[in-house]
Amino acid sequence: MTPKRPGGAGAFPKAVESPAPEPPDPATLYAALDLGTNSCRMLIAQPRGSQFHVVDSFSKSVQLGQGLEQTGRLSRASMARTVQALRICQQKIRRHGVKRMRLVATEACRRAANGAEFLATIKRETGLQLETIKPEEEARLAVISCAPLVSTRTEQLLVVDIGGGSTELVWIDLTAVAPRDRPRAIMRLHAGFHPPASPFPVARVVDWISVPLGVATLRDQFNDVEDDGARFALMSWFFEEHLAEFTPYKDVQAREGFQIVGTSGTVTTVAASHLGLKRYDRTKVDGLRMTSDQIDTVIRNYLDLGPKGRIDDPRIGHDRHALIMSGAAILQALLRLWPTDRLSVADRGLREGLLYAQMSADGVLEDRPD
User: 287 and 341, same structural domain?
Assistant: First the structure.
């Protein structure tokens, strides 16, 4: 007997759709854009507790400062690359309906004779209104972006932001702040290095400096030195000479209770090399702690590889091989002066600082003792 076909057999099953994730409310979204000497980077995020959740991002090497050291001007080619990247950023901002944003330019536009003219071109071509920020604000934003990485055991903190055209250093004394509140005390510097009276403990900024040498500008200063090792040594000592006016330069700092937080592509690349990563992984790099000896080992390996070996090293990558030794020279100069057992690697920087500052000013981030 032929079995009877059950009723409804062969019919298409009724689709059961899982609910689509709710798109974020544009009213809660913030954008932060950092146009630097080498890169154009943007984050779109929404506040979440005392942190934020990234909704969209963009990053592209535009080499805006290419040739700036020789001519004092931004070139047509570099400006064209940058405008093209900014059009993508504008599309993302419009797609998400972002209304709260801060879009900034740094050292390349500060130094270029045609920097202000270029910002007007950006406004005309993309509709984006960028502002050139001063070195002090750039340093402050780098500091607050790194607040979550500050240890409760840290009494003296040095935050270092190695950029393409400049390097910012900020030295902070946290001895008057209760250990559990030290990361939050750093975050509160969004109001300025000398904030108004506050009921919360205050981090004291001992000194800060913006050195007009970054990975691109320092490299360009010594492009004519052919020997790889000699070039590296000259770059490192030349950078150190620019620190003589930095107040902590003359003092010896004990390792106990001292922490450096480094934010830059140089520091994250060195960390990736230390870990032996074949492919960059932010989750393994951001927040990693390294000692001066471990960093020195990586830098010595870079020198042993030579220019050709660095190009082929997957841990460095093709985009960074031309800049890694000038960045390493800066890093070595700092660790020669202030060796540490705790250099925290920060895969974060100006964009995150811009977001924290906007959200903190709007009162949408939680800020209370545990």
Answer: yes
Query: What pLDDT does 128 receive?
Result: 97
Contact 156, 361 (CB under 8 A): no
Average pLDDT (67-94) is 95
Burial class for 280, CB neighbours closer than 10 Å (0-12, 13-18, 19+): middle
Say whether both 199 and 289 belong to one domain. Answer: yes
Which of 104, 133, 162 is the C-terminal boundary of a domain?
133
- What is residue 76's predicted lDDT score, i.e. its pLDDT? 96
Which residue in this structure is represented by tokens 């509140």? 181
List b or e across 47-59, with b for residues whose CB sees 16 or more CB atoms inside 10 angstroms. beebebeebbebe
Distance CA(251)–CA(271), nearest Å, equals 27
pTM for this prediction: 0.83
Q: Is 45:52 a contact under the CB 8 Å cutoff? A: yes
Give the CA count within 13 Å in the CB-facing half-sphere of 89. Answer: 32
pLDDT at 15: 40
232 and 126 share one domain = no
**Position 276 pLDDT exceeds 70:** yes
Half-sphere exposure of 215 (CA within 13 A, CB side): 25
